[in-house]
Amino acid sequence: MDKECGIIKSVKNEMNCLYLRGDHSMEIGVCSDVGKVRDINEDAYSIPDDSLNLFMVADGMGGHNAGEVASSRAINSIRDFMKKHVRKDIPQSEEELCQLLKSAIHKANQDIFLESLRDAKFQGMGTTITAILILSKLYIAHIGDSRAYLIHNDRISQVTQDHSLVGELLRNGTITENEAKVHPQRNIITRALGTEENINIDIYEIDFKQDDVIVLCTDGLSNFVDPEEIKDVLLHCNNVQEGCQSLVDLANERGGHDNITVLAVKNKSLKIGIEGRR
Q1: Which domains does the chain have, with CATH numbers?
Q2: What is the per-residue pLDDT for 271?
Q3: Got the DSSP string for 177-213?
């Protein structure tokens, strides 16, 4: 299936999910599409299916389906590591959980890197990864040029920094925002999961207030839909699932030159966190 939208394991057959846990609720939307040009979808994503509020998107790279392998390996490796090491019998601090996420990403990096060395058809494969843990705050772990945006008080801001050639040129003032959008090397990334033995992970810690929306997306969306458009769509839709679908449709209307994945989580309550963890 080329398009996957609203696949929420905890609430089957519903395109929009009000995700309840403990003393808080979240509204979740997700949509992933192959686009209009590519033959396969090398993006991957994950939403919670247990007591841990972990959300992820990944955008794979590499020939002969290696990108699809890398992104799915990353998602599965991180999720499995967290399930194995997050304790259900005793509380763990947010610092401990954040450190576990970093360890999980390092483990995924090793898994992908070693597989690329073992199998010639996977040589050079890698993936972006942007993962969030929703605790009393948002903890974001990030490698590559997928993005996390925060919508707060009718404003949208990019939380993550693009690990890309164009991102570096933009930050040092060599090119403008408009030039970045059409730069011929805008698809070259400078940091990826699985391409080297050791990696650096960007970690962000931000507040997540009532009615805030956190958005994770691959560059198949961000290269063709501006942040202000993302904000307007998600703030004026009937629900975040409808908003995610509309954003994917918009990227496809503008050519669909890449795989497109967008995942959005709206905080519907005054308090967030994981029941039993403080």
Answers
A1: 3-156+193-267 (3.60.40.10)
A2: 60
A3: HHHHHH-TTTT-BS--BTSSSS---EEEEE---TT-E
